[in-house]
Every structure is written in structure tokens, then in C-alpha cells.
Amino acid sequence: MAASQEVSASRRELFALLENVDTVKEFFAHIADDVQWTMHGQHPLAGQYRSRAELIPATIGQVLPLLSGGLRFHIKALHGDGPVSVVEMQGVGVALDGVPYDPFYVWVCHFDPQGDTIVTVDAYIDSVVVTDILHRLAPR
What we know:
Blueprint: H1 9-16, H2 24-28, E1 31-40, E2 47-49, H3 52-58, H4 60-63, E3 72-79, E4 84-94, E5 100-101, E6 104-111, E7 118-125, H5 127-137
Parallel strand pairs: 1-7
Antiparallel strand pairs: 1-2, 3-4, 4-5, 4-6, 6-7
């Protein structure tokens, strides 16, 4: 993981959970139940989500069944250690038809005052890659 100097070890460890398919779910436990998550873009997953319970099935829950072996993220850069951290990452997965699933993501994550829980996210994803897998493989 590439990280800027000002990022604490605990913040790096939190986002490092995204780099292993077995710990991605653990990362999402650090998102507030009432998270305000905006998925920007022009793709089927774009929209505003008002809770973790709404977010997970509407986004990653739509993609995971279309992948063989799960999804993880390669952290390209992590910036900020206060109330806001920005993470740049590449998805790492393989679709059921063998095509790589590798969209680029940028998440702007706002933390609670204690800095332990993500309460607001502005998420940006490669719209073409997401639209392609959903149109190619999602059940109709």
C-alpha cells in the first residue's frame, strides 16, 4: 500500500483490510450503521445510500455474485489522517466469464470525531467497468 507520511498506522491498517479478500467484510464493519454514502457516476450502482444495510446489497452485493473468488482492492494511495481520508484503489477480481474486474475507485471518507467509524463517503468508480459486468453477467 502506498501511503502519505501523515497517515497513522491505525488508519493504514483499516484500509489494508480491503487488500485481502478474507478481510474486506471486516472493513465494512467500520462503516456507521447510518452511513451517508454517495456513489457518484452514471452507472447502475450510482446513487445515495442512507445506511450500511442499504449500501452493501445495492452495491458490492450486486457485483460479488458475478465474480469468481471474491473481490479485493489494491490500495494505490491513502491521504489524510484526521476527520477525512482519501483512498485511491484498484479493484482486483475475475468475473465468472474469466474477464478481469478491475475498476479504479476513489473514496473520500469522513470519520466520526473519535476517528474510528466512517460516517460519510463520496465514492467514485470506473463507470464503464461496473456497467459492463452488470450488463454482461447480471441476471435479467
